[in-house]
Design goal:
It is elongated and about 90 Å long. The protein is about 15% helix and about 35% strand. The chain has a seven-stranded antiparallel beta sheet, with no helix packed on it. The protein has a six-stranded antiparallel β-barrel with strand order 18-19-20-23-22-21. By secondary structure, the chain is α+β, with helices and mostly antiparallel strands.
Length: about 400
């Protein structure tokens, strides 16, 4: 057997050349958009007698269905696809399958019918039924009647159980009202934007807003009225920075250094309805280093039931950030005075966690997970490092340090 890499690369080039060549032959009035796979396969079928579809098999070989696998004209036409093409016995021409798919589209309106495809790998029209539907048998009966009414040959139609596709909304998507743990942007020099994570929503006095990292503002340690967007620039701004504690010098700060106790700032929502108090986005699963960003369902949230003091070494905490999603890890150090790389800044009495984090996760809420998707807040992440023994380590400012600088915060 030839190398799969060589086979695949050679076949891909040959197939795309063949498709491109077919595109210059005759126009296709089909149901797919110009350039779609179905449109291009229909074009191929008009030049290859008895063509029923083209796909890659499990071993990586290009495979073609032909109504007559011994048809010399058809086999000669396949030479342009390369020497490794495999031929299977087909029952239907692909162009006919596309026409039947169009005829069956009204069936998509039936409850429990979730997909319809002219399947080039099965040489059938494939209709997908929702495997989770409580009316599965009833839907199948109605579907059989619909197929019969169209005149499409029943043997050309394959019914399979599948599931409905769900929108893959995630931590980088537009979410209203915005929970903690989702993407925020701030203009640096448009069209260039900084990317961070919204920490948590809170009331500062009577003002409703959200806590973010100070280094995710225009100038760290200065209240400069930085504007924030959630998700992408077209989605508009959601808030304005109104509090950012200044650095201090002198004891207990090391000589010739500037210090703070937290990397935090507070932004006021433009409209209180833009934020969700006491909520953190909950991705579909968790991993120590790299979790998914998808929210399933879109409304999945952790509910903050309160706060907890700085965790002890050995405790397990969780975080949600727009880059590495939902991760968890062990606290490996507490009340550490940690410098910020390449600056004269030190953050005093910070906590460190062995766990996944990446660029853009700055601001991620750090919390204890409780049963029932509840949580207690412990702080926000601001930095990370790689330790030769521990691997990935992130640093966060405990909530009590944040309140030392921003004042009391109501988080739920």
């Amino acid at each position: 057997m030839p190398s799969r890499l060589l086979t695949a690369s050679t076949a891909v080039a040959a197939i795309h050349l063949a498709l491109a060549g077919a595109a210059f032959s005759s126009p296709v009035t089909g149901e797919g958009p110009p350039g779609s796979v179905d449109e291009e396969l229909v074009r191929m079928g008009r030049e290859i007698p008895g063509f029923g579809g083209l796909f890659y098999d499990a071993e990586g070989y290009p495979t073609v269905y032909l109504l007559n696998p011994r048809d010399r004209t058809a086999l000669s036409s396949l030479k342009s696809l390369g020497p490794e093409v495999r031929v299977r016995q087909g029952s239907f021409q692909f162009e006919q399958l596309v026409e039947w798919r169009h005829a069956l589209r009204p069936a998509l309106a039936l409850p429990g019918v979730v997909s319809l495809d002219a399947d080039e790998a099965r040489n059938r029209v494939v209709i997908g039924l929702d495997a989770t539907s409580p009316e599965k048998s009833l839907n199948r009966d109605r579907l059989e009647q619909e197929i019969l009414s169209t005149g499409v040959p029943r043997q050309a139609v394959l019914l399979i159980e599948t599931t409905a596709a769900e929108p893959l909304t995630g931590l980088q998507s537009k979410l209203r009202p915005a929970p903690g743990g989702v993407q925020i942007l701030f203009p640096i020099s448009p069209p260039t934007y900084g990317v961070c994570t919204l920490g948590f929503n809170a009331f500062r006095g009577s003002t409703f807003g959200f806590v973010i990292n100070s280094h995710c503002t225009g100038v760290m340690g200065e209240t400069d009225g930085q504007r924030y967007l959630q998700s992408l620039p077209p989605d508009g701004t959601i808030g304005t920075e109104i509090a950012d504690f200044p650095f201090f010098t002198g004891s207990p700060c090391p000589p010739d250094r500037r210090c703070r106790y937290s990397d935090s700032a507070f932004a006021k929502y433009d409209n209180p309805r833009l934020g969700a108090l006491g909520k953190i986005a909950r991705p579909s699963s968790v991993d120590p280093e790299l979790g998914p960003l998808t929210l399933k369902p879109v409304s999945a949230r952790f509910t903050l039931t309160g706060r907890i003091g700085s965790p002890l070494t050995g405790d397990i905490v969780h975080k949600v950030g727009r880059t590495t999603g939902w991760t968890y890890g062990t606290v490996v150090a507490t009340c550490v005075d940690r410098g910020s790389a390449g600056t004269d800044m030190f953050l005093l009495c910070q906590s460190e966690v062995r766990g996944g984090a990446g660029p853009g996760d700055s601001g991620s809420p750090v919390f204890y997970r409780l049963p029932g998707n509840k949580a207690k807040l412990v702080g926000i992440l601001w930095g990370g490092r790689t330790d030769s023994n521990l691997g990935l380590v992130y640093v966060f400012s405990p909530l009590e340090n944040i309140e030392m600088e921003l004042g009391p915060l109501r988080i739920n």
